[in-house]
Amino acid sequence: MPLSRANSSSMHLPNSSNLSISAKSPQKSPCREEARRLGYYRNAVCGSQGGPLALPYRWQWRVERWKNSMRGFFGGEQQPRPKICPACGALVGISATRCHECGASMRFSIAAVSKGLSRILGDHDAPVTSALLIANFLMLGVSWLAYAAVGKGGGFTILWGLIGEPQYRLGASYGPPIFYANEWWRLVTAMFLHGGLIHIGFNMMSLMQLGPALEEVYGSARYLFIYVFTGAFGFLVSAFTGHFSVGASGALLGLVGAMLAITTKRGGAYMQDLRSRLISSVVILFVLGFSGLAIDNWAHGGGLAAGFVLGKLIADRQPMNSKERRTAYVLGWLAGLAIVASFAIMLVHYHDPTPFSQ
Asked: Which member of 2, 224, 226, 247 has the lowest number of beta carbons within 10 Å of its beta carbon?
């Protein structure tokens, strides 16, 4: 019901003793004036004592986050939060050690390593490819230092002359020690060695063209397995012919073989064009090998065949269920452990007598 002037009995005026009326014109509070100057702090309110202006919500959130991080750094209590599986992205409980969806370990797994590598290397889509690139260049530096230690690293050796006893000690592929001394680890170590800057330059350009696409298709774990298996198989074929060989090209041809297999399973004009270009590149490479250049066609052929077979057997997509993910983890772990174990054995046998010193 609207108020009426006649109904004055229902209206109560405040006690005059509690009401102070000043005849002076109202003056602007210093705090209000400061807030007006700082346009960033809109609608800022200060106490009667002129206290500090409140921070914007964005900065309050940043300060709170910094406090929480410092509290955790110095051992303070932090409220536990659910975790995200690095393999399948499922939300996992606070105390869980394995993902309930895919069975991946939350403490250490190929997916977790891949995720960590992506942070370190800055490539969120192809961390294994980036790691392989770095590993190959690191081994090139080690090879050059090994040659320099015996007085053979000068001149243009770094370009194309890193071949001989130091490479043998570092794990080059060679038939006699592989078959007669059971040095099977050479099939793995050899794919990380190169004959010089020119050799590694061509191979690493090919790796960066092929690797990221296939790693996205197969996932990091299965991609690493394909790379290592096809490279080792290529050197196995080469060892039967007695070749002394180094380089990642056998593994790279394995990636080409896997990509060729994908083009046979998918239709469309683009896949046909890609298949034609891949076949043309392979033919040119083999022609160069038969022309007398220092190219190991046996390793290339073995890697290409192995890659094509694996490409036919392995689904050209990311693992879809827990069984496929577990299989991918096993394959990735086998490949990773093969690399680590091969280089560890190489270090043990590094100072053994060589055919070059006899």
From this structure: 2
In the annotation, is 249 catalytic?
A: yes
What angle do helix axes 297-313 and 269-290 make, rounded to 10 degrees?
A: 160
Round to whole Å and give the CA distance between 128 and 83.
Answer: 23
Exactly one of 114, 206, 249, 342 is catalytic; name it. Answer: 249
CA pair distance 221, 207, nearest whole angstrom? 17
Q: What percentage of the chain exceeds 90 in pLDDT?
A: 49
User: What domains are there in the chain, each with its CATH number?
Assistant: 81-122 (no CATH), 128-348 (1.20.1540.10)
Question: Does 300 participate in catalysis according to the annotation?
Answer: yes
Q: Quick one: average pLDDT of 193-202?
A: 94
Classify residue 294 by burial, with Cβ atoms within 10 Å: 0-12, 13-18, 19+.
Answer: exposed
Q: Which amino acid type is present at position 343?
A: F
Question: Which candidate in 109, 114, 206, 300 is catalytic?
Answer: 300
pLDDT at residue 221 is higher than 80: yes
